[in-house]
Amino acid sequence: MSADPTARITAVDTHDIRFPTSRELDGSDAMNPDPDYSAAYLVLRTCEGGHEGHGFTFTIGRGNDVQVAAIEALRGHVVGRSVAELCADPGALYRDLIGDSQLRWLGPEKGVMHMAIGAVVNAVWDLAAKREGKPLWQLLADAEPEWLVSQVDFRYIADAITPQAALELLRRGKEGAAERAAELLRSGYPAYTTSPGWLGYSDEKLIRLAKQAVADGFTQIKLKVGADLADDVRRCRTARQAVGPDIRMAIDANQRWNVAEAIEWTRALAEFDPYWVEEPTSPDDVLGHATIRRAVAPVKVATGEHVQNRVVFKQLLQAGAIDVLQLDSARVAGVNENLAILLLAATYGVPVCPHAGGVGLCELVQHLSMFDYVALSGTTEDRVIEYVDHLHQHFVDPVRVQDGHYRTPTLPGFSAQMHQDTIDTFTYPTGGFWAADLAGADPAGRDLAGTEPTA
User: Fold this and answer.
1) What angle do CA 436, 442, 444 make, to 5 degrees?
2) Is the model's pLDDT at 450 over the cut of 50?
3) What are the residue boundaries of the Mandelate racemase/muconate lactonizing enzyme C-terminal domain, all occurrences included (predicted)?
């Protein structure tokens, strides 16, 4: 479809979309026992026929309305902008959004407003990729290194990586990129699964799903831990017996512990050969992570899904606090800030294994890892993308996982677009499912919600 050089953004539509995942304890962990996977979702409307940008940020239920309100507060920065100029330079909007001083005061560059900026920025990238007729990973991989550097905000991180150093990394990433892209299309990108390991699951369900994961080709699974040590010992023993000695098994405490407690607890589980311990303490505690890492080696330390911006990631890397960097596609300010984080990880030689546990996060983050492989790090060694088999059927271009690998998306865009029927059904509180549920009727929506994992 031809692009209209005069087209403008005409509207920003927002939706509070929630799924009742808490009813099956999908997503349950030691810190978040009853999450309802939710998306503060937006659509950028244009007067360019057929072109729209879709984006969202992830929450776990109550407060999703607050997140939607934050997105709506950014509408004035977006409506009326030239579509062509916006897509040619998403970084200009990114800088405008993080630079709104009155809204910035609510962060700065962290929390609800920052996540709202990420949702809007990601929608712009979705629109830009659709207009180019490319999946986002390919749009980024094909881009000139100089342009990519122009999209990155180096303020506060220039002591760790300069624009010139980033340019050199991206120029090196171009070497062999075409061959890696072809390999990506052939083989996909390695995945691991968290589907067996939710804390609320019975041992029988854990065993069934862990064995199924191995049969499906996954070489790593993850278990939630942190509520009760004796229970964790039993569950880790059960899982290790189910998958055997050769499958990597990560554990995830979801920020539950103090530093000393994290060390003691991880050592108590070391007999089950955990590959990494994830979010062992507060995501803001850089030095605490460094202390834990020194104490629990050879168990690796991983964190990132709640790291609020590129500045904290910089400090985690500078302090030698993590072995695995877990960026999130919707926690920071979108693709632009995640480019900065990928460049930081490449500078320090730390593998990126993204978080993808929530609704739509698998769909988004695959593009970032695939770009990193093709045009930045050039490797998938010790790199895996999290996979959770929840709610993918609600997306127009859902993830496809085969033989333990993400299959490479080929449709134009950022894979962020939801079906209109999903929006109509799961918008809170007026959508068909919630209206019936809140009225006390049986909404008969469990199959639509897709809350029963199969992997």
Assistant:
1) 95
2) no
3) 203-299
